[in-house]
Amino acid sequence: MRHLLSASDLGGEDVAAILDTADKLKQTLLGREVRKLPTLRGRTVVTAFYENSTRTRVSFEVAGKWMSADVINVSATGSSVGKGESLRDTALTLAAAGADCVVLRHPASGAARRVADWLADHGTSVVNAGDGTHEHPTQALLDAQTLRESLGELTGRRIVIVGDVLHSRVARSNVRLLHRLGAEVVLVAPPTLLPTGVRDWPVRVTHDLDESLEGADAVMVLRVQAERMHGSFFPSAREYAIAYGLNERRLARLPEHAPVLHPGPMIRGMEISHAVADSPRSLVTDQVRNGVHVRMAVLYHLLAGEETAV
To answer: Are residues 129 and 141 in the same domain?
Structure first.
């Protein structure tokens, strides 16, 4: 594996290998006072984030450091990007400076693939850490890992994804990956927050959250991305919460084994109630923990592969 740009790039064997490696890394580090492995010693990982991030950015940096890589952070506000440097020139500069891997978040859909094309002759791997409304493949991997830990085999499981599907790269990557793993995916959203052509995706689409919860094996709540909205997509936050917010009443409609996920940050009281977000069935912090191990596994497969045993 040279790059990780889209969930579509991953075959079933690739997904299994990454998730199994994440499991091994998690067990290897369990109980260690010093969480440090020599696996990527001498490698340089650059995180280049052109959008705000907490979970993705921190987990990639922790993942690299726990594997002994040299991790360097570049942000748009503190680099030559602020002086007008193009993405291409920044990418070439990072490769020339010795980056073995560039972890990129960018507001433009397709940016990660463009960077991978520009660096094709430089031996630098590229990981898509979120590009516009396009994809976020490592989020889908950590979500799959979290669901696998909670539910076991995902084949035949019904996963409900509710919220702002239109602007969600998380939803797009999860649909692709969960379908590949054999799960049935149900998308729930108001008509204004569904993308054109969504009914051609391998999903069932509905506007009725209450109906979709019957028999669901898990619910993933999406963040309403107000920063990407230029206009009114629903009447008010209160009406959105009434129709699409996951509250205690709706949690009670789920089977007892069904967990709740959210990629964060959560808008409490609108997308999800405080009680549900903090309930034992919420796996939000598990997602963050698994994010570190899954991103360790991704870096391992990109930069070490068969050269070093986990």
So the answer is: no
- Which CATH number goes with the domain that contains 176? 3.40.50.1370
Distance from C-alpha of 305 to C-alpha of 15, rounded to nearest angstrom: 14
Collapsing DSSP to helix, strand or coil, 226 comes out as helix
83 is in an annotated binding site: yes
What is the percentage of the chain residues whose pLDDT exceeds 90?
88
Q: How far apart are CA 8 and CA 199, in angstroms?
A: 18
Domain match, 276 and 292 both: no
Tokens for 119?
A: 């660096």
Q: What pLDDT is attached to residue 233? A: 72
Domain hosting 64: range is: 7-135+288-307
17 and 131 co-located in one domain: yes
Query: Cα separations (Å) of 305 from 1, 169, 300?
Result: 8, 27, 6
Residues 8 and 293: their CA atoms lie apart, in Å, by 21
Least confident span in 71-85, 177-191, 282-296 = 71-85
CA 203 to centroid of chain Cα atoms: 19
Is position 225 annotated in a ligand binding site?
no
- Is 202 known to sit in a ligand binding site? no
> What residue has token string 């068969």?
306
Whole-model pTM above 0.85?
yes
Whole-number Å distance between alpha carbons of 276 and 158: 20
Q: Is 264 annotated for ligand binding?
A: yes
